[in-house]
């Protein structure tokens, strides 16, 4: 175990074997750190945060000489709110912000300059690239890929193996540098398993993308699209709309 003298760790924190906590780190009361956890300088963990074995918090970003996107400068600390659960083998970069009661499952990667709203679930193996905003109460399921420059509003559902993209030019030509844009997914929208969202497309509020679809145009609000390329199929049934859902027992 190696804990910097400059770190502030609450007296009741449970610390596993081989944990490394660098300088200017804050770990709040009631936190539990598994074996081989590394918390990089400047990171902030609020009260009752659980971190699984072999997870890295606050990793500094790397950059290749061939990277197309500009670097994130001054990305700041990794900041984790109270009652967050983080699984095993995860990597959270500097500049990540996790809201109250977020759950991050095993083997997740969250890049720099990403914010995730309260009570969102990030499933096993999900990758969220840099410069993304994820809202409250979202659910990103196993192995979903959220590309850089994407925005997901509140109550969005993303099924397993969904892929988003941000480069219409597939890494060729200078014009591509002016048009990088990921997916924009408005409040309450849902994306089915193994769907693909092409660069810059918007799924409007409570729109639905059927499983296996390829979204080449914006998806209208409260509309289901399906196919390759995805086309309008029908309206979302009334009983599927957010305003017609019963609250889960115990929910706020």
Please give a structural write-up.
This protein is mainly β. It has two domains: 1-60 and 77-117, 3 Solenoid (UDP N-Acetylglucosamine Acyltransferase, domain 1); 135-169 and 181-237, UDP N-Acetylglucosamine Acyltransferase, domain 1, CATH 2.160.10.10. The protein is built from no helices and 33 strands. The chain has a twelve-stranded mixed beta sheet, with no helix packed on it. Strands 2-5-8-11-14-17-20-23-26-29 form a ten-stranded parallel beta sheet, with no helix packed on it. The protein has an eight-stranded parallel beta sheet with strand order 1-4-7-10-13-16-19-22, with no helix packed on it. Strand 32 and strand 33 form a beta hairpin.
Architecture blueprint of SSEs:
Elements: E1 2-3, E2 8-9, E3 14-15, E4 20-21, E5 26-27, E6 32-33, E7 38-39, E8 44-45, E9 50-51, E10 56-59, E11 79-80, E12 85-86, E13 91-93, E14 97-98, E15 103-104, E16 109-110, E17 115-116, E18 121-122, E19 127-128, E20 133-134, E21 139-140, E22 145-146, E23 151-152, E24 157-158, E25 163-164, E26 184-185, E27 190-191, E28 196-197, E29 202-203, E30 208-209, E31 214-215, E32 223-226, E33 231-235
Parallel strand pairs: 1-4, 2-5, 3-6, 4-7, 5-8, 6-9, 7-10, 8-11, 9-12, 10-13, 11-14, 12-15, 13-16, 14-17, 15-18, 16-19, 17-20, 18-21, 19-22, 20-23, 21-24, 23-26, 24-27, 25-28, 26-29, 27-30, 28-31, 30-32
Antiparallel strand pairs: 32-33
